[in-house]
Amino acid sequence: MADKNSAIAGEEPPSVAGLSIAGTSEAPAAGAVEQQIDPWSVSAGQDAEGNVLAFDYPAISNRKWNTKLIDQAILERFERVTGHRPHRWLRRGLFFSHRDLDKILDTYEKGKDFFLYTGRGPSSDNIHIGHTIPFEFTKWLQDVFDVPLVIMLTDDEKALFREDLTIEQTMKFSIENAKDILALGFDVKKTFIYSDLKFYGNGGSHMLWNAFEFSKLIPFNQVRGAFGFDGSTNTGRIFFPNFQCVAAFATSYPFIWGDDVNSPIRSKKTAAIPCLIPCAIDQDPYFRLVRDNSLRMKNPSPKPALIHSKFLTALQGPGGKMSASNPNSAIFMSDKPKEIQKKINKYAFSGGQETVELHRELGGNPDVDVAYQYLTYFEDDDEKLDKIYAAYKSGEMLTGELKKECINLMQAYVKGFQERRTQVTDEVLEQYMKPRKLEWLGKKGKSAPPAET
Ligand code: TRP
């Protein structure tokens, strides 16, 4: 029942982004607030008493947006096809939903090319673990599949959507963020990272043509509902989604495939190369738009496939949001060991009891405990994790002990990052940002199993 305000017609359900997403179809109780998820604002629901609720992911993705939940069957197929055990973030449901991942596995199985595309909106130069995790995961996918990767830094988007930021500032953040992202260890032969505002004018002409051709297919009605635009929205915001969409077309990067950048022709063959996009679930509205229209391009591109992640839990607990403007909401990649220790001890929401005696008697609640949650992000050993879960729940393990485990892991992660970050000089960055032909082997590559970080 798509009306004329509807986001996106076609196979996907009608207008969804910007709508509040209730856990059920029932009206919320009086005084309750529904969760809200769209590409620019994310907030958890509240119950009638004003308590913040955890996000209800199946409600939004599976039931409202009609994505597929990642289940055991697809994980088993992933392992069969790639020969790699699924990453712990897949096993534990941090990446929990997808569109057409099975088709990407078909493509890979047949030894055909596809590429990975992800991005970041550079809104500050202060990144935290909520920012690094999606990129760590993308790097793992790149290692497993041995495929090209493009990383889009949307300094245009951030300057348009944040009243307080200028394009000079966001372009500067792009450079700082790019260095941080590269400190995660992407292979320079297979990775192209770009600042939108610089690339469009310098090697990105095919992307501009794609954006204009694509924009011609998209009436305002179609984005108005999806992104919450109205008559007073600045026109840059209205045009921007075209860019984030066409970044999923292989023809936006002719140099990667050895196509002629100076030719006015965008290759039909290149257009047919599939794309897989790892992203947080709030980015899905963009990609529904491209999925519904990619086949309408003169040189059609397949609907991009997606793997969606949940939001990472803020230190304050489920429903909270890691925020660059609140240093106590997250572990930042610039934090010193002592700061990490203090933040986790002081701010990490605890599922423990008020006193040691009570804790021993009643046990803790690992399901709401943030230190435990972070262990599930970074501790790879499933057995060890199960033991900690049981020990904390029974009261045998105390909150301080659980937090210590978490502090050790987080300190090691941040330290490793900081060491690698010092290696990413301007010269290194320049290599990754240069439009050039990439080299990859896909299924033909017999690379060693990638290490999980
Ligand atoms: N809009 C995203 C943000 O604000 C950045 C982005 C662009 C992105 N393209 C992407 C994120 C593809 C994930 C996948 O952070």
SSE layout:
Elements: E1 20-21, E2 35-38, E3 41-43, H1 57-64, E4 68-69, H2 72-82, H3 88-91, E5 95-99, H4 101-109, E6 115-120, H5 129-145, E7 149-153, H6 155-161, H7 167-182, E8 191-195, H8 196-199, H9 205-215, H10 220-227, H11 235-246, H12 268-271, E9 275-280, H13 284-293, E10 305-309, H14 337-347, H15 356-362, H16 370-378, H17 382-394, H18 399-421, H19 426-433
Parallel strand pairs: 6-7, 6-9, 7-8, 9-10
Antiparallel strand pairs: 1-2, 2-3, 4-5, 5-10
Helix pairs in contact: 2-4, 6-7, 9-11, 11-13, 14-18, 16-18
Bound molecules: tryptophan.
> Would you give the CATH topology of the largest domain?
Rossmann fold
Structural class comes to alpha/beta
Cα Rg: 22 Å
- If you average the pLDDT, what whole number results? 90
Name the quaternary structure: single chain
**Tell me about the biggest sheet?**
7 strands, mixed
Q: Provide the domain count.
A: 2
**Overall form:** globular
Organism: Eremomyces bilateralis CBS 781.70
Main location: cytoplasm
Keywords: Aminoacyl-tRNA synthetase, ATP-binding, Cytoplasm, Ligase, Nucleotide-binding, Protein biosynthesis
Protein name: Tryptophan--tRNA ligase, cytoplasmic
